[in-house]
Amino acid sequence: MLAPVLFLFFMLLSLSAMATGRTAPGLSPVKHTPTMDGIALPLLSFSSDQGFGYGAVGGMYLYGDGTKAPYAHALSAQVFFTARGAMNHYLRYDGPQLLGPLRLEGRLEYRQEKSSPFFGAGNLSAPDFRGDVDDQKYNYDKGSPGLWVRLRGRPFGEKHPFQSYVGYGWRYTRVSPYETSILAQERPIGIEGGPSGQLLAGALWDTRDDESDPTSGGVEEVALRVSGLATFSRYQYAGVTLSERRYIRITPRLVFAQRLTLDMLFGEVPFFEWMTTGGVNVTEGIGGMGSVRGIERNRFAGNVKAFSNSELRFQAARMAFFGQPLALGAVVFLDLGRVWHPGVTDGKWHEWHPGIGGGLRFSRRAAVVRMDYARSTETGRQRFYITFGHMF
User: Fold this and answer.
1) Domain that residue 275 falls in
2) Is 23 a member of any domain?
3) Rounded distance between C-alpha atoms, residue 116 and residue 322, angstroms
4) From which residue to which does the signal peptide run (predicted)?
């Protein structure tokens, strides 16, 4: 399980050197500044929720005359499949300074899940679940083509921590419940599937020293999303997301990282939105490698979600691999989460769902490989995750 990920990571190192204009030993250095870079990589990952994942990702970067940073245009694409019948394909564009100081981002995508989890609503849902994520009682078949576009900028200058954005997202969700599933029995709002369009807006106060691997500072974010007839949606609802991410350097090698998230939905909310949060980086939960590790993906869902992630990150060693710097790190973590949903029993206020564990990190500049082992202290069940990028 570890070998293919390390193989991919070392490919990332060598390709990163190519993209920055460096050369491998024995080759002559490039004498000019490139106007375009291209990268193509295989993708390999693993999680206890989705099994092994495989595919490919590629990117093209246009620099133009070099006056726009970090590039003038970027185009990326992904084709990705998992062992449990899921797929995630996309085409994404990024223009950091396409419209003056405004950053234009957009994405076309198609997602499909033969076994998309649904355990019912609320903080105490599916009390008879015993850990079999392949049981059709707790799954349904879902397909969802979609798109989003976003304008993001720093109205007070590039050095100022304040950012704001507006955007639009649209998705058509196909829902096919299995006959014996909880979804077929409960038939919540959204069982018919259909289109859901959202107007998006948000603001961030970002004081991190590094966006991909921060060691100090933080990010505070408030995000809004509104869905209705005017946004080409079958459902009328609204959502608010509040998030705080904080990074404290304890020693030169030790960093404490903390994230707090509260997401609230109001109105005619389809059940497939109960699991999602808003913001620049959308997450799922409660449960899974994006919210509470050690708990099955989307194990608890509802109109109101709250979760906390605490990590102690230790940079164990730095080394050189083919002339490129490589950092090896270790992490221990505690995740907590719970939901509230109208019309169901959610338990006492202190009944949160914890996950604990640890992991390894391999990083090279903006590229981070994450490997985590987590355990639910409620059920004793264990989960493994191998993916890219820090959790937050």
Assistant:
1) 36-388
2) no
3) 42
4) 1-19
- For 219, what's the count of Cα atoms within 13 Å in the CB-facing half-sphere? 26
Residue 334 lies in a domain: yes
How many CB atoms sit inside 10 A of residue 268's CB?
A: 14
The confidence score (pLDDT) of residue 1 equals 41
CA pair distance 298, 121, nearest whole angstrom: 11
Residue 92 C-alpha from the chain's centroid: 15
SS (H, E, C) 36-99: EEEEEEEEEEEECCCEEEEEEEEEEEECCCCCCCCCCEEEEEEEEEECCCEEEEEEEEEEEEEE
Q: How many domains does the chain have?
A: 1
232-259: b (≥16 Cβ within 10 Å) or e: ebbbbbbbebbbebbbeeeeeeebebeb
Taking the complete model, does pTM exceed 0.85, yes or no?
yes
Res. 19: pLDDT tops 60 = no
CA distance 265 to 236: 11
CATH number of the domain bearing residue 376: 2.40.160.50
Max Cα-Cα span within the chain: 69
Strand partners, 228: none
361 assigned to some structural domain: yes
Residue that is written with structure tokens 């109960």 in the block: 274
Contact between residue 39 and residue 15 where contact means Cβ atoms under 8 Å apart: yes
Alpha-carbon torsion, ordered 152, 240, 263, 120, to 10 deg: -120
Which residues on adjacent β-strands are paired with residue 333?
A: 311, 357
Which of 135, 91, 95, 100 lies closest to 117, judged by CA?
Answer: 135
- pLDDT at residue 6 tops 80: no
Mean pLDDT for the stretch of residues 163-183: 97
Percent of the chain with pLDDT over 70: 90
Please report which confidence band the pLDDT of residue 38 belongs to, taking 50, 70 and 90 as the band edges.
confident
For the cut 90, the answer to whether the pLDDT of residue 211 exceeds it is no
The residue with greater pLDDT, 29 or 284, is 284
User: Other CB atoms closer than 10 Å to residue 87's CB: what's the count?
Assistant: 16
Instruction: Scan for tokens 């375009």, then name that residue.
Output: 36
Task: Establish if 73 belongs to a structural domain.
Answer: yes
Could you tell me if 210 and 234 are in contact, meaning their C-beta atoms sit under 8 angstroms apart? no
